[in-house]
Amino acid sequence: MKSIYDKIVNLRLQLKYHNYRYYTLDASVISDDMYDKLRDQLIKLEKKYGKNNLLKTDNPILKQIGSKKLHIFSECVHQTPMLSLKSTNNVSDIIRFDEKIKKRFNTVNTIKYYCDFKIDGLAVTLLYKNGILVSAATRGDGWIGENIKNNICTITSIPKKIVGNNIPKIIEIRGEVFIKKSDFLILNQCSVLNKKKIFSNPRNAAAGSLRQLDPRITKKRNLMFFVYGYGVFISNKKIYSHYDRLMQIQKWGFPIHENCLLCNKVVDVIDFYNKACVNRSKLDFEIDGIVIKVDSIFLQRKLGCTEKYPRWAVALKFFSQDVETKIIDVTFQIGRTGTITPVAHFIPVNISGVTVCKASVYNFRILKKLNVFINDYVTVYRAGDVIPKIRAVLINKRDKYVRKIIFPKYCMSCGSKLLHSFNLTTYYCPSNFLCPAQNLQRLIHFSSKSGIYIKGLGRKNIIKLINIGYLHTPVDFFTLTYDKLQVVPGIGKKLSNKIISNINNSKNVRLEKFIYSLGILDVGISIAKILSKYYKSAIKFINTNFQTVSNIKGIGVNISKSIITFLKNKNNLCIILKLIDQLNIFFSSQ
Predict the structure, then answer these.
(1) Are 365 and 425 in contact (CB under 8 A)?
(2) What are the structural domains of the chain?
(3) 439: helix, strand or coil
(4) 224 belongs to an annotated ligand binding site
């Protein structure tokens, strides 16, 4: 049962972390497909073992709608919760959705459905009182979001005042803020010219634009807005149809996309979906599916909601577009934890308007499972319309010119013999800080925002410091001086003073951040938090043993082996002890 417990806890922590990355930071690190797979695993395990007392929780991640707000903006409490949507990419689930509702209301002759596009942007809620916009907020955790009214007011398509007849005393307008593909392209081109951050996709660009502290920056981004629904709707005029309510909202001056459908046959819903699949590439904004809602407000109320989803609505998402191409090479990259990742390079192809030429194969096991050869023809897609992945190898097109991929036995950087990871899925270099390629990644990670965070010491400056000979291990960050920095090309007097000041500030670091900054194999931020909470001091952590760490709730056997292997390495331990001497490492329960 402990292994099941560990798996469930680990999945809960992963989902919590990815919710935070997506909803709060607007910087997801996995695709929607991968997130859904993790969530489905947790649902199955909790359904099977959830009755066990050890696995019960007062705040299950499956009920979480969004994530915590950032502390940059003030809080804004929603009048009604901003629920998420249950989603599927299986058309047969929509047929079952229809059958289930008709079975529930067998006395109702016709069930009408309202369908519209699922725009890939940032959901916001706008609160109007007596026709005046009084607040605007992000989804947040579903109940409390971030007050972004100043930035929302820069979007010209959002009325500051409702005009027309029968204006409600209170109304929450729900909609999606997004950026057009054409504007997104211009934004990134300008960012390249000005050497600023490049956004990975339009959704992140829209979300990042809405979270600017300076509304003037938001205004320059040409954000768009479409209404998809509402929360509180208090009006003298009684309207009992979702479609009719949206049409009234449109009359009040709010934009609603013209591509919507009101129908009473599930076959028409599927036809709308198929047309959206065909036409999505012609749109100047990103959509990732369609949304189907029961049109009757009366039936919506009868069906009600779960803690996370309305039972009267469902999202039917698109399958990623597959494109055929040819593998021309496979290279191997060394990550900051020493993990060796195969990367497949192929003839460049255009997928949903983006040119891709390579895809991570993640690990040895997946490479073996794919059974891919150099010169093979494969189908490639963008998982979640973001991450390039190989779908399948076209075996029928394989010819005599294919070459087998040879997985390296020795580290390409330091020559150390590669070891199998404890979960037997990957190979890794065990040399840690002694491996040059791995050490570079470790130093970058150590000083990054995720680590102890030394502002001003990005990748380029770290490489310069390594080349000059000033930087070998994380300890060397704290031996840097103003005079040393002055020798580094591109670092002037002003930046040198800032870096030294930031190094001094970074010496006060939370235990969880310190543990995570070390780059231990399989120890992410969630695991680092568990370890920090258990040990409460760096000395107790480094003096642990396998028996102790493996008994911590949420820490599995493989992660325990990784931790102990890292701590038993004499070079690692020497570096950690020097860091403990240099830093003020403290435990915080916050």
Answers:
(1) yes
(2) 2-63 (1.10.287.610), 75-317 (3.30.470.30), 320-429 (2.40.50.140), 432-586 (1.10.150.20)
(3) helix
(4) no
Six-digit token pair at 502? 């930031």
Residues 379/322, Cβ–Cβ less than 8 Å: yes
Round to the nearest angstrom and report the end-to-end CA distance of the chain. Answer: 30
* Confidence (pLDDT) at 50: 64
**Distance between CA atoms of residues 85 and 176, nearest Å:** 14
**More reliable by pLDDT, 107 or 298:** 298
Cα 324 from Cα 391, distance rounded (Å):
10
**Tens of pLDDT, residues 416-466:** 999 988 776 788 999 999 999 999 999 999 999 889 999 888 889 999 999
> Cα–Cα distances in Å, from 331 out to 101, 334, 386, 408?
52, 10, 21, 10
The residue annotated as part of the active site, out of 51, 103, 118, 536, is 118
- H helices of 392-519, in order, are 436-447, 459-468, 482-487, 493-506, 511-517
DSSP state of 70: P
Answer yes or no: are the C-beta atoms of 202 and 222 closer than 8 Å.
no
Using CA atoms, how far apart are residues 229 and 219, in angstroms rounded to an integer? Answer: 24
What was the pLDDT predicted at 127?
94
Q: What is the pLDDT of residues 14-49, one digit of tens each?
A: 776 666 555 555 455 565 556 667 777 777 777 777
The answer to whether 85 is a known ligand-binding residue is yes
507 is catalytic: no
Report yes or no: 452 and 475 within 8 Å, Cβ to Cβ: no
For the segment 53-99, what is each residue's pLDDT rounded down to a tens digit?
545 544 455 555 444 444 456 778 888 888 888 888 889 999 999 99
Asked if residue 176 belongs to a known ligand binding site, the reply is yes
Read off the pTM: 0.54
